[in-house]
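Because discrete structure vocabularies remain unfamiliar, it helps to consider an illustrative case, giving the amino acid sequence and backbone structure tokens:
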Amino acid sequence: MKKKLIAGAASLAMLAGLLTATSASAATIRLPKSPMNACVIQNGIYCIESVTIATGSGQKIPLTYVPSGAEVPAKKTPVDFFAPVAQIKGGKVIDNNWWMSQYQRDVLASGKYVMQDLSSLFGTANHPEQGAKFDPKTKTYDINKPLDFYSYPMDCWNNATKSSTKSTFGACYKGSVAFVLDNEVKFFFFYPTAADAAKQIANFTGVTFIDLAELSATQQRPVWGTTYDAATKTFKATEGIIIPIWVTRDALVNGWAVAGTPAAVPADPAAAATTTTPTTESATAEATELAATAPLAPEPGVAVGTPAEAGRTLVGRWTHPDWQGLNLGALGYDGLYVEARTPNEFVSSMLFVDVLPTLTGADKKTNLAGQVGNKAYAVSLDSDIVITVKVRVGEMQTGVTVAVGTDIVVKQEPGGEYNAISITGTPVTVPLAKNVKDCEGEEGVSKANVRQFQMIAMAANDDNSGFGVEGTSGGMYVGSNGVCGLSTPVWSEADKAFTWRAAAPHFAPDGVTVNKGFYKAVIPTADAALLWGMTNPNDAASALEISLTTEEGGTAAFLKNISVKNGRIIIDVSGFEYSRPKLKIGIKKGYKPAAKILNKTTITCVKGKAVKKITAVKPACPAGYKKK
């Protein structure tokens, strides 16, 4: 039986069932039918744990939950101040962009520290802790690291392969250098090998470190190789500052202020109280100067961009104290409301998640940020943000996922008392229909085109429900923006093919522009073996074919791609016209499975000091490189 998603007046309505399989660890899943609270409001096994957004530049911004009617927490005082140091040797700059905390810069810039090579103590019970006191007579420390410290799990970075692998602290590092000031261990640097640690001590010997915090405030840094005048504490030549992406990305998460950014220079409240009233002439000059140097970001609390109208009331929002200052309010909303519950009162093992924009008035009450004159429909979410929502789901284990968004990733996170899932993706424009008839034929006009982010996940371990082909893994993912008639792939045993629909009104609200759509399906290769006998997943790109048919008047022009990655067949179809295209994927006639799976292997190629890793079915080194 084919299952569909039917769109209501303002948003995605619910579906009844999708492809999945009941797992061995079956249970009766009873997810809440009313919206879950934030865990900070009502802690339990069913609640919304966190919401994070990432901007188009990759900056991660953790959001805070604020109940309707409550004040947004004040902007926190930064816990640290990150700025670069310059390394001076022989009176010249040999490094100009080494960023670190205030604490570390104070130690290095003092010039009184002592470096200690602790590689011989690393991995033993004699390696000191940060803050330990050093006894020069006995050469010992009063506080040492516990042995279980070395078993701490971590992502270990390999500079040769430029990739991370799961490891432990003791396996990842073998070299250790302590910076000691006044016989106190201030901090460490750890290295992959003891030789690396010894080399770094040699490199730092004879180096003077200069704190560049003040120079960075002018958004400048010294030019590499320029001279430094210790008497005047100036550099002969400077250039524009470059803030590493990792510093900007982690600043909000870790509570740092960052040198060279407006947020790093808070206003002095005392200055306003002692300022004299300027003359007209001086005030005009000052205003001109301020206008030329004003930051591009809007003032906090000032909404810019597309206006919004208060829609239905909401119980709260996820936001940030500096929402406007971070340029998150450009589309007229001031936070996000996350609705997590079952799709309707008749099912209990499906999780529906909807992310909506919010608008808060002077009374601090939270409402849906609706379109002006059409407030039942939300304003569009920002197309450049990546949203991550983490929800506690009790015993539920996710199976098939249906999403309205792009590049959706759903991760199961098992825990002790409950499981949690995190949903990450980007909003996508959805043509919303006033009624189902608007999704039929080539005359339907969408009531509104709204950029949305939604997801429905089916439980794979519920013993009261089961959908689709028995024996499939349940790990299928479906994504589209055609929610008026979105179905999961329906299997035909006779044709050995999947067919599905993704419907929407033919025209945009202007009645002229034709709505276009996309459909993405991810099928585990184990399921492909069961359904098509495709034991070699590398056959998928050549063995599977996609066809698309539309209703009369529509075009069948579209882009298609089939790829295989990480044990999954990924099917991308985009650019087709709505209203009700029918897509089909099946095995090509005459397909013969490969005799054996063509496994990829990796080789190492070297050219002088350059190293490259080549992964392919038949890897070969590039010209000029030799296999190691």
Notes: The first helix runs from residue 102 to 110.
